[in-house]
Amino acid sequence: MSTDAQPSTASDEALWLAVVREKVRAIRFGSVQITVHDGRVTQVESNEKTRIGQDRPDSRSRPSGS
Prior knowledge:
- This protein has one helix and two strands; from the N terminus they run H-E-E.
- By secondary structure, it is α+β, with helices and mostly antiparallel strands.
- The chain has a domain at 11-48.
- A two-stranded antiparallel ribbon has the order 1-2.
């Protein structure tokens, strides 16, 4: 493990956090993976799954909770 890794700057952190938020908002089912090298986020990947056979035609709608 390296101890001389450069910490992320505030602008770097704001950028990758924005990317992660957008990828999470864009998918209904799936995963978002963050890759870190030397203590810095270097890559953000998303993997979306398509569910077949849902009861609701609009798979993005969610129950209102009432």
